[in-house]
Amino acid sequence: MRYLLKGFVCSADFSTLSRKAVLIENERITAIENDITGSCAADRVFEFKDEIISPGFIDAHGHSDISALAAPECFSKITQGITAEVCGNCGLSSFPLTGNNFEHIQNLYSNYGFEINWNDFNSYLEVIRHIKPALRLFPLSGHNTLRAAVNGYENVPLSEKNLLKMCQLLESQLLDSSPGLSTGLLYVPGIFADTSELYQLMKTLARHNRVYTTHLRSEGDKLLESLEETLSIAAEAGLEKVLISHLKTAGKDNFHKLDAALDMIRKFRERGMDVRFDRYPYIESQTMLSVTLGEKYSSYSDRELSLLLQSENEQLRAIEHLHTIRDENYWRTRRLEGTTHPSYLPYQGKFLSEISTDPAEAVVQILKDAANDSTVAAASMSEENMKRIISAPEAMFGSDGNALPPDHRFGRPHPRSFGSAAKFARILLDSGMEITNICRKLSGNAAEFFALPDCGSLKVGNYADITVFSPEEIDSKADFATPCRPAEGIRLVFTGGIPHYF
To answer: Does the pLDDT at position 38 exceed 90?
Structure first.
């Protein structure tokens, strides 16, 4: 099929916006001209008056590793203009799989009802090629999965032999074209990694000039210490590219730390390290409900936690612990975001203070029955800081969400899965930022930083991954009450020359 798009086209270098015509043939862009001779030969012509023809938006931080295979139409991403995603973030990838971690990963993703029948990066890619999801996926190697593959999920010392094996596994995935390594240092088993382990992994990355992305050990009380740890180790290892995942200053007492965090990032940039960060345009985060229990229980995986809490005595201890560490304001600012357990479905979207007169008891009961797939949203961020972060020149767009169908069959999502890109654009447009710069943040920055092949800009020979949007109308009305509401102002989306959404 040959398609012709006419409208305001964002130039390949994101410097200009001018009326042009883009010709698509098969999966590639074959011409971009003021007037394409023979355009009448196109099978279909789309003419736009005031809309922007942009490279498809690239989600620099997504978690669609399995959801894009279980629901390959990728409705939540495509409808907001996202055509590609860097997945495998926060230390969690769906490979490599061994006897040490296969059952855990299978259980973790069980709500998608999708059979995991691969073991390494290449066999995972083969499944992607066979299913052909609408979303182009670029999978990072996840440290938590990698570590568990050789050492399991227990808090046991990592031997030199297993460290070497882990580095070798990482290297094989990099040679097979994984764009880098992600860590999730708040989660098991990444939480057990010391600086020596991280240094050796970063040295492996440095040899291949790949990207290191990290969910820091702390995004609140110890934000600056965690940031300094990451950047100092990366500098010592000789890394050239570091991405701080969903940069935030969590907790009101930490809002003032943004200036210091940005200053630290820019000092390392001045020394030659390309340090950047991604961010979603919401001030409520989402993570596993188990983090509610705090540091005392952080060494348990969600599955281990559920098993532990089968004991009534352990339940009582956990409830008493929560009474000690959490106050009323905490329960009023955290909501049960998602779960697939039928007993708790009526409570989805409600603040924990609304679920029970004793939220601690309710949380422990939910964790006992469904820790593995229950998530919590926390209203703990600053609106002003969020806008400063996404406006910063080092920022790129990342939703931290999944590719999902237009319903709740995989659980109730955070609205960021449906609205992040559109809301990101709306905030920047309202701030007065140039449209070309917004397109760069939504697409070009991620493609350049991760060295993603043949995408991220509109130029002849690239994949025809294209998003057409109205700068007047682009926005998201998705919220916690109606999280699956599609974005507004998206006119047309192509991935690989295939129109997916009108």
So the answer is: no
